[in-house]
Amino acid sequence: MGFTENNYATFLSSGNPCLDFFFHVVPDTSSSYLHQQLPLAWAHDALTTLKLICNLRGVRDTGKSDKESFYTDLPEILYRLLQGQDVRKNQKFEWEQRKHSIARRPSPRWTKSVRTGLGVNRQEPKEVRRAKATKRVKSESESTSALRHQKTIEMAKKAIERYQQDSDYRFLYDRISELFAECLKSDVENLNPKDYKKISLAAKWCPSTDSSFNRATLLCESIARTIFLRESNPEYERIEEAHYDFIIWDWLRKEIMVPLRKDAPMLLSFIIAAFYSSAISHNLHTN
After folding, report:
1. What is the pLDDT of residues 65-108, one digit of tens each?
2. Rounded distance, CA 58 to CA 71, Å?
3. What's the CA gap between 162 and 16, in Å, rounded?
4. Could you give the CA distance from residue 248 to residue 257 in angstroms, rounded to a whole number?
5. How far is CA 224 from CA 74, 140, 185, 275, in A?
6. Which tens digit of pLDDT belongs to each residue from 178-213?
């Protein structure tokens, strides 16, 4: 027995893990309870549990609108498996810290003593001061670029090691890549005839090829390899491996992602119109 928020007596469990999952997993549910209840519900009825997971993400009266528990989308699951369950909270905290530090910076109208403390010597010619400032900015830029490049290498290495060493992660990664590849290929085929009924929103949720998200998961590279199979074209086999990876990565961006995202606003308008048309029709029939 336990108590509700209004201090009324209640049972802590209904005896059905799926029913408990439905009633107790809400936007402010702790991750510890979610991790405890999900395996129980899945063992009890996997299909029902999968439907309940999708129900978390449903909006417009189709679910709980709980994108945090649903992890928003499939690529996000991979990202959190690699970077940790609290990666988004940590990123938000770091962003707020940077925002506050920027707000606390002194006014650009420094006093003479402050400028002198930063190494600005008014006795030097103006051209010399400009040259030193340019050199300092260039040095800082190169240092930042080197750190960013090193971070990219470390993220890619981490993703590759997880893929090679964790069979469960590899299975999930491959299935997500195949799903996106299949949807994107089908969407491009149906794009020219403007058959919006058969086009998904895969391009909307697929990471951008040059995004930090993709640099952390390498998902676009896997999707490109699945779409542009090397053995599907004899010309691909003549291309060196490293160059082939870059070519198909560029093809994914230019030939698939750009055209599909260009038509995304029209597709969304079509989906919304179809949704409301279906809802109105359903209400008319039920009433």
Report:
1. 444 444 455 787 788 888 887 787 787 888 888 777 766 655 55
2. 12
3. 35
4. 12
5. 17, 35, 10, 32
6. 988 998 999 888 887 777 677 777 887 788 888 888
